[in-house]
Request: fold
Amino acid sequence: MRIWTLLIRKEGREALRSRWFLLTAGSFAMVALALAAFSMIGSGYIGLAGFGRTAASLVNLSMLLASLMGLGLGALTWAAERESGTLAYLLSYPVSRAQVFVAKAAGGAIALAAAMGLGFGVTGLGIGLGGGLGGLEEIGRYAGLAAGATLLSWIAYGIGMAIGVGLRRQSTALGVTLIAWLTAVFLSDLGLMGLTWAIGLSPAWLWWLALLNPLHGFRILAMVMLNGSPDLLGPAGWFAWRTYGEALGPLLLGAMGIWLVLAFLVAALRFRGLRDSGL
Amino acid sequence: MRWSVRLLVLLWLGVAACTRASGPRPPDIAYGKDPCAECGMIISDPRFAAAYVTRDGQARLFDDIGDMVVYHRKHSEDVAVFYVHDYETRAWIDATHAFFVSSPRVHSPMGYGLAAFSDRSRAEAFAREHGGEVKDWARLLQETQPPHGAHSHP
Amino acid sequence: MMLRLALALWTLIVVVPGDPDRTLQEAIAAAPPGATLEVHGGVYHGPFLIDKPLTLIGVNRPVLDGQGQGTVLRIRAPHVTVRGFVIRNSGRSLEHEDAGILAEGAAGVTLEDNHLEDVLFGIYLKDAPGAHIRNNRVIGLDVPEAERGDAIRLWYSPDARIEGNRTRRGRDVIIWFSDRSLLRGNQFEGGRYGIHYMYCNGSQVEGNVLRGNFVGVFVMYSRGLALRGNRFLHQRGPSGYGLAFKDSDDVRVEGNLFLDNTAAIFLDNTPREEGSPVRFERNLIAYNGIGVLALPMVRGVTFRENVFWENEQQAATQGEGSLMASDWRGNFWSDYAGFDADGDGIGDVPYRSRRVFESLMDQAPPLRLFWGTPAMQALESAAILVPFFEPQIRLEDPAPRIRPPAQAPVKATGDAGGWIGLGLGGILLAAIGWGWLRRPPRPSRDVGERTTPEAILEVRGLRKRFGETWAVRGLDLIVRPGEAVALWGPNGAGKTTVLRCILGLLDCEGTIRVAGRDVRKEGRAARQWIGYVPQELAFYNWTVAETLQFFAALRGVRVDPTKVEALGLTPYQDHPVRTLSGGLKQRLALALALMGDPPILLLDEPTANLDLTARTEWLSRLRELKARGKTLLFSSHRLEEVQGLADRVVVMQDGQVVAEISPEALGEAAGLRARLRLSLPPMELERARQVLEASGYRTASNGHGLILTVPADRKLVPVHRLWEAGISVQDMEWELEE
Reply:
């Protein structure tokens, strides 16, 4: 047991020390705080009721930054070890590969959860000091949103780890991270938009294609959590609501769960296969 | 392709995803979710829910048999089959072969007071018990008008 | 009327529960018309029927229990008053519309201060004009929405006053065929349609709260409605509207609040008659998905002095079309980007709603899925920079307000304490996570007993291939406890590969056992026996102390200060490892390899990174370790290392063992020649060359030293010659020639 905590701590510490992590987590907390402040100013006129909008902005912020944070952290963790040759050295100790991998996953996940906790915590505190937006129900939803965003950052971390295995240089890892991020956030959506516009994808097709992107899983899950249904997503959202109804929340959570498992599984398999040239 | 997309524009709140099966089948209605194509209200009560399927496979759902008649009158789409529910068994039946009781004592969602039955004897029994008259589909198409407060007082 | 009132006051009948002589129903039957029944607290089992004008007053909230049979209380006479009761447990039949209270054909009924629970329908008025329904509470059945009845239902019951009631979890509040109703100060929550008006004329709706219904108020086929000061809150869902109109005329909507609805206002064919006034004034429409949603053919609606505040879409059509046929002059738009140069409070450029993405959605409505995503916003921004396509103008306000009109701020409850708690909770969690990760490593596990077998290391049939080339092709090796074995051979002979296979870093064919444990199956247990010093030292970016602590803990031991001291690392404890010199790093690596006292040391080219003096010191350290009983296996291509340390030399070439010999025999046996690189001071370079050439050596210069080839066992001879000539060699490197 000790060996596990030791390794998890080591990986978490490495994550917390990484410049990438400090940069993205810091930006996340700052922007989230700014959002809270902004919505408090806005609420001066109509009263403290703008929770929905603040939450919607936080959803987008999480899509942009939580994913970037996780992807980068995951991809860079291998390259950093690789550049310093430490991974092979670590494995020469009486530890198993599985331990090293799980520790890497768990340590990074704890660091990410800490970052999201800090970001959402600071924002929640800001909202509270400003007088609050809504009551217990909103607070519950906000906590749910924070949990969803953390889950998203974990998925991104898993994907980052999966694509980063075997990369030799941190600069390469950074490049790969940015490409993956741009693809997830912009390119895949623009592609889907183009496809929908040009050939008239059916709502069902569009729904499933969009759900291939975990960012959409998170976004729609957040929407279901905040509004009770995907009420402003047009025919695709309507298709899903009509077909799955109350099961939509669990379905989306399941889709994110699959992503989480898949990402770490691929990362683990790639790491296991990494014997000869990669260490 | 484009055309069907445009149609969806009109109907993104109005119509469920269309099914293109071989030969028309009664559409399934998600009660409590699907809205009526005519009035936009959510369809909750299967006893009164109605639907038609056009020849190109589009389904239109209604919360009241009267709304289906009125909607069809306004849009004159090329309909393959009109469906209504049997008031008692709640099974889909072909509207053109159904018998309808028009009674102010039937509180249908949009106030048309129409109940459908698959056979004439049950319709007549119902009409005797609750008042009202039995009509066939052709008469229903001709005579159905939105109810108005001042008239048709029970 | 006065007479009747007087009569009623004359006859006061007291009813108490459990009276064996007279049930409540009997008391009702016996009471003269106009009498007042004072019904005392307790449970009365119904159903009940009131068929004459009576006043029933509950004292201490008596309960009328319908026992799940039909309607609990049926009123069939005019001027009945029912006040202060709990009415519960009606039948469950939608067919028969079982209700809590049904007034049928009864004018002037007054229902006040009653609590209706567990009832299918709540209050049902059928042909009951002039009813007063005040301060009642209706809580519907906890069943799926399709199986619920209406909380309040008016059917051909004009001139009703419905005030201060609260309903929860009902289906709808239905007002059909009932003109001139007044609804004031009610609160309708969690139903399907907060209020559904159909075929009603001349209704007033004031100061009500509609919260969390599918639709707040839906008005159909009606005229002459005024809605003032109502609050439409949180009507969500794909068909969630705050206030919706279909086929209605002559409507005034003033000073209402629309907050967080899917669409705040929905308009379908309203006004129905051209020129009929439909006016929205001074409403606050904030934080909704869509502010105003209209079917494309809607025209002639007037919007004045409304505030459109941060709705995701301020106004939209359902389907292709525009809102230009309505009058939008003089509203406030929170997304107005114009200016007011003349300071008259009116923007100098019109407010125009025109978005690229909206136009795209018209053509392909499923695109709405992407509304508000970063990708959609990027597209929208790109379209502003590069106007590749001119979107249609949706609506235009020629005189938008610069500031929102003065308006009483909405008091929405803010649970500041809860938020602060949540915020602190999140930060605390982060801090706990952070703190936990940063705690210094503490070992606790003891290393298990180590029984020493005959062969401490056993390698059999070891084969390893990288791509097409074999790095090791069939190697057998036995190392006994306390032995020091050198793997000897030129670069590329496969020495490092062997070591890495033993450590399990590489997947190799054959078997490797460390103290009897198979490296592949029990790698962790095997590695407990091994301390490893790699050729290329790899450290995390930590301090010396952190590094020592971590790797010691990994072996389940504490840092042994005497070892740290012995290796001279104590003064460097707090230095980051990356600032250490090569020699110190090597010592640190050895210190790490010795943590937990593993019996075997694997050393890969142990002196490769060291200068001459450090090398000597290093070799003496290793000799000392050997003397203390450690088993050493090291790779090397330096003769002095091998000769100074090894008991036995395994000579490798091209991945195979070519000989096993004693270190002394190594030099001659192979007839090996060494290629020597001598580092010399620049000014001595030329003289040194002359000295060596004079002694019969052929030399070449590489700029800061000389290169020469000598018999492998006589490497130090040229150094000695130079020393005799007074030239000191700064450093010396050599390798075997093929």
